């Protein structure tokens, strides 16, 4: 899904672009998590060492052409936000 989103919006300061261009660990297969994957990260945030921050994190799951799902990492609440909203990006990769 990240590649499809990137294909539409191309490079720039977008969540999908940040993930596609991320090179952590010299890997090139980073993606933006789906809303279900993001929820799994939230549910395991203590184990992963993620702080209880009052920030929304983007998912790659679209609600509509102009909106996508995000999740608040202090409470776990899921939100539908305009794609131009500023949210945290957490790149993930499959292994």
Task: Describe the structure in brief.
By secondary structure, the protein is of the alpha+beta class.
Description:
The radius of gyration is 13 Å and the shape is globular. α1 crosses α2. With 95 residues, the protein is an alpha+beta fold. Helix content is 29%, strand content 21%. Strands 1-2-3 form a three-stranded antiparallel beta sheet. It starts with a helix and ends in a 13-residue tail after the last strand. The model has no long low-confidence stretch (mean pLDDT 88). A hairpin with a 2-residue loop joins β1 and β2. The longest helix is centred in the middle third of the chain and has 9 residues.
Distance between the amino and carboxyl termini: 17 Å
Mean pLDDT across residues: 88
Computed structural class: alpha+beta
Question: Shape, please?
Answer: globular
Written as H for each helix and E for each strand, in order along the chain, the element string is HHHHEEE
Uncertain runs are: none
Work out the strand percent. 15-25%
Number of strands: 3
As laid out across the biggest beta sheet, the strand order is 1-2-3
Main beta-sheet strand count, sense and barrel state? 3 strands, antiparallel
Number of helices: 4
What is Rg?
A: 13 Å
What percentage of residues falls in helices of 4 or more residues? 25-40%
Question: What would the keywords be for this entry?
Answer:
three-stranded antiparallel beta sheet; 95 residues; alpha+beta; 29% helix; 3 strands
């Amino acid at each position: 899904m990240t590649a499809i989103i990137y294909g539409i919006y191309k490079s720039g300061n977008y969540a999908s672009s940040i993930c596609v261009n991320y090179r952590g660990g010299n890997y090139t297969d980073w993606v933006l998590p789906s809303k279900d994957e993001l929820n799994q990260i939230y549910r395991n945030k203590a184990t992963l060492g993620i702080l209880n921050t009052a920030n929304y994190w983007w998912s790659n799951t679209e609600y509509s052409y102009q909106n996508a799902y995000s999740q608040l990492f202090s409470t776990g609440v899921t939100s539908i936000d305009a794609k131009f909203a500023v949210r945290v990006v957490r790149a993930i990769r499959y292994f």
